[in-house]
Design goal:
globular, single chain, 69 residues, mainly alpha, 5 helices, 0% strand
Length: 69
């Protein structure tokens, strides 16, 4: 599962975004998704700092276009 797809889901699904903040491992597992330890740490750090889902997408978008996955 690419980080981009998880970020998209967070930005479009409020329930999933909330679940990622409270129980990220289960939220990903329920969908059969996985992230590397580094991707998950980055994403959780971003979620803790920014509860606005559009802000999360804005922060991660440049990384995705630079080929970081």
């Amino acid at each position: 599962m690419a980080l981009a797809q998880v970020v998209y889901k967070i930005s479009t699904d409020k329930d999933f975004a909330l679940r990622m903040q409270t129980d990220p491992h289960t939220a990903l597992h329920e969908r059969g998704w996985s992230l590397s330890k580094e991707e998950l740490a980055f994403l959780l750090s971003t979620l803790r700092k920014n509860t606005d889902r559009t802000e999360i997408r804005r922060i991660v978008k440049p990384l995705l276009y630079s080929g970081w996955r």
